[in-house]
Specification:
By secondary structure, the protein is of the alpha+beta class. It has 8 helices and 8 strands, in the order H-E-E-E-E-E-E-E-H-H-H-H-E-H-H-H.
Length: 280
């Protein structure tokens, strides 16, 4: 019995030694692996010592840190996109809903400040409220119709104001895009009616211009025909009239087949008397 008890204790001690060795090996391995970290080219790091951030940004590359005492917060500093909805009122008090897309990037050298003041949730904490305020301030300067016709000016105003506001938080705005403007159904109907009226007005003006052109062409044509007729009348002489009479009579003789009509009211006679103009 004593021998079995000794064997059990020996086995337990061996298992305990193995467990201790495994834990020790894992601890050493974790310590070694945890001593190094990598920052990619599109990233910057913030080194924390007992939770306190360093004042400089860790550049891309392989770096060493003290295990268990230091940690690293990594920030993406390449261009990123943030989209949010915004609602405001135009200068003529029309409700405007829009969606804004913001292309931005963090100031690489300022990531320690961004981490200290904003943390990783800077988009929802800073960008989204800033977009709301800037859209309201910008759309209030335009009527609802101008928001459509002067969309480029509206976009520039929103972009410039947003750049100025987010620069204070070390966030660089590169470009914004107005994805769409949405108005109330009543305003949409009013715009559609106005467009239809303008199209009808333009069509009426084109029809009027076409009528004037056609009338002018008709007048020019009639005037040309009248002038031609006047020239023909001025060229008509008594000798020319006699010649045309003779030509007409000759044509009638050539067409006659030598038979008299079976029923006639009167016998046609041809005037073959020489013209005075020709006998001279």
């Amino acid at each position: 019995m004593e021998e079995l008890k000794d064997d059990y204790l020996t086995s337990a001690m061996q298992l305990l030694k193995i467990a201790v060795l495994v834990v020790l090996a894992l601890t050493i391995l974790g310590t070694v692996l945890g001593s190094f970290y990598i920052i990619d080219a599109s990233e910057r790091g913030v080194l924390l010592t007992w939770g306190k951030p360093a004042t400089y940004a860790v550049e891309p590359g392989l770096h060493f840190k003290t295990p268990w005492m230091q940690s690293v917060e990594i920030f993406d500093v390449k261009t990123q996109k943030y989209e949010t909805d915004a609602s405001a009122a135009s200068r003529d008090l029309q409700t405007v809903s829009t969606r804004i897309a913001v292309n931005y990037r963090l100031n690489p050298e300022a990531v320690p400040i961004i981490y200290t003041e904003l943390g990783h949730y800077y988009a929802d904490r800073i960008i989204q409220p800033a977009v709301q305020e800037v859209v309201k301030a910008s759309t209030a300067k335009f009527s609802a119709e101008e928001l459509i016709t002067n969309r480029a000016d509206v976009k520039d105003m929103i972009q410039n104001l947003l750049k100025e506001r987010l620069a204070k938080f070390n966030i660089d705005v590169e470009e914004i895009a107005i994805i769409d403007f949405e108005f109330s159904p009543a305003f949409k109907d009013a715009i559609e009616a106005k467009v239809t009226a303008e199209q009808q007005k333009l069509k009426a003006e084109r029809d009027y211009q076409r009528t004037l052109i056609e009338a002018n062409m008709t007048y020019v044509k009639a005037d040309a025909e009248a002038r031609a007729l006047e020239r023909q009348k001025s060229a008509l002489t008594p000798e020319l009239v006699e010649l045309r009479k003779i030509d007409a009579q000759r044509a009638a003789i050539e067409r006659w087949d030598g038979h008299l009509p079976s029923a006639t009211v009167g016998m046609p006679f041809l005037d073959v008397t020489p013209s005075k103009g020709l006998s001279q």
